[in-house]
Every structure is written in C-alpha cells, then in structure tokens.
C-alpha cells in the first residue's frame, strides 16, 4: 500500500506578478500555483554579482510580499527554495503565509495595498502616551489596536512612533472602533511622513 501523501494540485500558469523584496518591487512571472504556494521567476536578467546579492538578501529574510493582479490575490509568502537552473533567471518556490483574495476591489477603495503587520509602537493621543499593536500598514497609514478603551475624535492629530517601519511623526485619526472585549481599533493616516520614507511596505499597483 502506498502511504505517500498525495501532492497538492498545482496549476501551470504564466501570469504577471510583483514581489516586494530587497525594499523594492520586482516583476515576476508566476509559473505555477497551488492553495499553499507558488513558483515564480524573477523577470530581470541576473548575472554574477547580481545573483550573489539576491542570495544575500534571501539569507537575511525569507519573507516577501506577492501580488498577482490577474488573480486578484496578494499577501505574504516565505521563500522555501531558490533555483538558478534557468539561464540568467532566478526561480523562487514560495509558501503562502497570509493571503487576501479579490484585492483589487478593496485596493480601489483604500488606494494602497495593506500589509498584515503585527508589532508594537507608541502613540501620543489626548495628551497621553499609549502602547499599541499594529494590525496592518500601507504607504498611506496604519491600523492599530490599543489595549485600553478610549474616546478620541475622528480628525484628531496624534504623534506616532513605530520602529518596525522606521516611522516617527504626525498622523490623523480617520476612524475609531471601540471593541466589545475592551480595547480600541484606530485607523491612522500619515501627515508629515512621506511615502518614499516608508520601507518594508509595497505599493503594488497594476
């Protein structure tokens, strides 16, 4: 009896995609796809030192962001294998970590890709400093959660410090949602923080 588990179905494709790696967006071709991962080829021709640089980037961090416009999916993936068999191109085997579907509909509304990101920061609101945990981030703003239930007016100006993305400056409170199990969700828009200054979050436009 064969006890080997069946391989997950992978569909052979040739779709345009984008990945965010080495603090920049790079064009890729999605060669195949399954419910757990994908195989993508970097479109840029790479030689010698360029290939060595990519391997150094991957050794520092195996997590990337992926966007496939035609399938309307985007999210985080982990690089589980690197192949240089194809002439002058690198092929990456990816395992999905978090994935969102039909992203173009909400990208149109939000105007920017939102990266799921959980880390600790600080915000000055109503004259008091609170510690927050981020929920997601984009090049336009942050969604955060406070452990405390607080009252804050929409449109209020606050100061935020978020080391994960190197952010420090003024933000505007766009919306507030008090949670039933205590705590507060807050949507923030950057004010004096430039998009070009935000490292670690892609824009992902078609």
Describe the structure.
It is a single chain. The protein has helices spanning 48-60, 103-110, and strands at 11-21, 24-33, 37-42, 63-68, 73-83, 91-101, 115-116, 120-125, 128-137, 141-146, 157-162, 167-178, 184-190. The chain has 206 residues and is mainly beta. The protein has two domains: 11-110, predicted glycosyltransferase like domains (Thrombin, subunit H); 115-197, predicted glycosyltransferase like domains (Thrombin, subunit H, Beta Barrel). It is elongated.
Structure at a glance:
By secondary structure, the chain is mostly beta strands. It has two helices and 13 strands; from the N terminus they run βββαβββαβββββββ. The protein folds into two domains: 11-110, Thrombin, subunit H (Beta Barrel), CATH 2.40.10.220; 115-197, Beta Barrel (Thrombin, subunit H).
What descriptive keywords fit this protein?
2 domains; mainly beta; Thrombin, subunit H; 206 residues
What is the level 1 CATH name of the largest domain? Mainly Beta
How do the strands line up in the largest sheet? 1-2-3-6-5-4
What would the CATH topology of the largest domain be? Answer: Thrombin, subunit H
Report the β-strand fraction as a percent range: over 45%
Mean pLDDT metric? 84
Architecture (CATH level 2) name of the largest domain: Beta Barrel
Class by alpha and beta content? mainly beta
Overall tally of structural domains: 2
CATH superfamily of the largest domain: predicted glycosyltransferase like domains
Tell me the radius of gyration.
Answer: 20 Å
The percent range for helix content is: 10-25%
For the largest beta-sheet, the strand count, sense and barrel status come to: 6 strands, antiparallel, barrel
Report low-confidence residues grouped into runs of 5 or more.
1-7
Gross morphology is: elongated
How far apart lie the N and C ends? 49 Å
Overall strand count: 13
* Helix and strand sequence: EEEHEEEHEEEEEEE
Number of helices: 2
